[in-house]
Amino acid sequence: MGDYKALYLPYPVMLKEATAAKLRQYVERGGCLISEGLPAYFGDGGRAGTAQPNLGLDKLFGAKESYVEFTPDLLEDLALKVRGSQIFGRFFRQEYTPSGGTPAGTYEDGSAAAIENRFGKGKTLLVGSYPGAGYYLHRSPQSRTFFAGLLEWASIEQQVRSSDSEIKARLHEGAGGTYLWVVNLARASRGAEILLSTKFGPFKTATDLWQGQKVLLEGRSVKVTVSDRDAAVIRLR
Asked: CA 88, 94, 96 angle in degrees (round to 5)?
């Protein structure tokens, strides 16, 4: 895991002690860790910890559990505000008391829903519910802003950005060259501008190898229109 600048820990309800130790070491050496709620609530053998977060992760996250609620049927619309964005959780609600960390989010009643902490050379962000599942049910623009903002929080430059959420872009670079894959998920033709990271280019030519669509290239900006449920495979030179 040391090869990655940031890790996102989804639904980490059960972790082994060895895994918790690796996570502490990862952050201590400079990694950025984002975790959904209940990290290691159950440890080795499925035993619930008497202190939460369990397995010493309370020190890693700079937080202690002050309240927890497991009522999935009542928490489908659980709202919380984290790092300035209104997002949704689901299934469970874990509240915190800072113990070295700094509050980074609240539930609607003002209780702490997220904690940021510095640990060694790295840092952590603990969010007290299940925002991944919340986004699956509530695909709000603010939720997308929150998830995209995690890259900036971890000082990671996003490789590609699409002006249209229905247009997905992936950049592939290798011995055969640099190729931009642009996929339209919508059931109508859509146009989008794809902005590339400063790590790539600038390029002089852009050619769609899939259907020969017209591509407008300006430095690291690629503009293309893709038919419904179709794609463009663009060679960049």
From this structure: 115
User: Using an 8 Å Cβ cutoff, are 178 and 203 in contact?
Assistant: yes
Distance from first CA to last CA of the chain, Å, rounded? 33
Domain holding 65: CATH number?
A: 3.40.50.880
Q: Is residue 219 part of a domain?
A: yes
pLDDT tens series, the chain, 237 aa: 999 999 999 999 999 999 999 999 999 999 999 999 999 999 999 999 999 999 999 999 999 999 999 999 999 999 999 999 999 999 999 999 999 999 999 999 999 999 999 999 999 999 999 999 999 999 999 999 999 999 999 999 999 999 998 999 999 999 999 999 999 999 999 999 999 999 998 899 999 999 999 999 999 999 999 999 999 999 999
Q: Does residue 184 sit in the same domain as residue 147?
A: no
As a whole number of angstroms, the distance between CA 229 and CA 20 comes to 42
Asked, for residue 1, whether it belongs to a domain, the answer is: no
Q: Are residues 120 and 26 in the same domain?
A: yes
> What is 130-157 written as a DSSP string?
-HHHHHHH---HHHHHHHHHHHHHTT--
Q: Is the dihedral of CA 223, 225, 229, 232 positive or negative?
A: negative
Q: Is residue 61 classed as helix, strand or coil in its secondary structure?
A: helix
